[in-house]
Structures are given as structure tokens and as C-alpha cells.
Specification:
Layout: H1 2-16, E1 29-34, E2 37-43, H2 52-59, E3 70-75, H3 87-93, E4 98-103, H4 113-120, E5 124-126, H5 131-137, H6 139-147, H7 176-188, E6 191-195, H8 196-202, E7 217-221, E8 240-244, E9 249-251, E10 254-258
Parallel strand pairs: 3-4, 4-5, 6-7, 7-8, 8-10
Antiparallel strand pairs: 1-2, 1-3, 9-10
Length: 265
Amino acid sequence: MEQHHLYMQRALQLAGKALGNTYPNPLVGSVIVSDGKIIGEGWHHKAGEPHAEVNAINSVKDKELLKNSTIYVTLEPCAHYGKTPPCAVKIVEMGIPKVVIGSMDPHDKVNGKGKAILEDAGIEVITGVLEEECKTLNKRFFTYHQKQRPFIILKWAESTDGFMDKDFKPYAISNALSQQRNHQLRADEQAILVGTKTVLNDNPGLTVREVSGNNPVRIILDRELSIPADYKVMNQESTTLIINEKEEKTEGNLHWLKIDFATDF
């Protein structure tokens, strides 16, 4: 079991390389081991591209070694045809005799079906290796499929004595290191949501600048449409949803969505 943990930990490391890039797909890493040596590695880079297991298999130079190997994968191999063929079928086709899975896939098109394909083909399947770590890696994916809601992070900056501003005016509390951490959160998540007063007081851009990564979708709660058109959140740098009670329209990357604040929240 210790060896299983070691190789699954490596698969987790590989999966984490794509953080912020795989939506709506999960983060998945895979390692292939033969005679105690890693002969292949892969991870899912982006939705629509090959899955982790396929990338790991493709990285193996001598495909004959696959017939005497174990493939480790952080999430149950998929069982359905989407933009790519099922990974469970690919594993069967390549003759890999043993599969070690971190966590099962909560997606209703997979959930146990991938494991069943493997076992029906006579493949030995071990599940639950570093399961909690694998689930934590995909907390966003699991939250959506199990609870039908987004995974939400509440973020704010406050002084050690519990204040968020000075004399009711914006005040810089964050330092360079915490700013970098803040921007990494933006790069890792799909969207960022703020209210009208935050925008009016701080005029934030809500984009990724201190680290490398994709800009999140900006969601602005602007009930009365009081944010001026020249504010940073209204620029062209990221898709922006402006939730309001007055109008519904689209102008380039800006989308005004009309709702009833009294009943829709």
C-alpha cells in the first residue's frame, strides 16, 4: 500500500499542473509503473484534449511494457464518449492488467461505470488510494456534481484588530505576498463576484496580474446600474456579467443580466 501511495502522490502532483485550465472537466493525473519503475506519466491539460490516462499511455516508449504494468489515476477512468473516447476502454485495449484509482467519479455518466468496464474485462482494480487527497484536489468538480452548486471561497482583507478600511475609506492592508496569493486564487477559479460598493470604492480590475494564469469571469452585483462605464471592471480584459434589475443586453465581453433581487437570490 505504501508504494500505491507513493505513485498516487505523483499522480496528484501531475494533476495539479493544470489547475485553472480544465473547466468543466476535473483535474486528473496518471502514472504507469512496470517492475517498480515509472514508465509513463500524464495529466489532463484542458477540456477537449486527451485525458490523463491517454497522455500517460502515449508517453510510454515501449508499449509492450503496458501488458505487465499498473496504471495509477487520481479519478475513475471515464466510461462515456464525449470530446474524447472513454479512457476505461483505452486501458482495456492496451492490455494493462491493473488499475489503481484515487477517487470514484461523481459524474452521473461515469460513477462506477468506468470501474465496471475494467473489471468486466478481467482487470484488477484497486480504489480509494489517497481518496481524500484526490477529492480535495477536485473539490470544485465534486461540489458541482454532488451538490449542484459552485464551490465558493469567501475572501476579504482585514487588519489584525478586525478592520477592513480606515475612516470608511479604502486602505491598503495587503502586502506584496498576499497580493500574489490573491491573484493566484483568481487564476485558479472560474469566476470572481463582488458587489457595487466594492467596485465604487476600490475600482478593482479583478484580473490576474501578479501571477501567470487566466482571468476569471467577473460577476458584478449592480442592482441599480450605478457603476460608471469607465471603471476597470467594464474594460475588455475579461468576460463580465453585470447582474441588475433594469436591463438585459450584451456588448462584446459585457453581459447585463436582469433579475429580481427580491426573489432570485
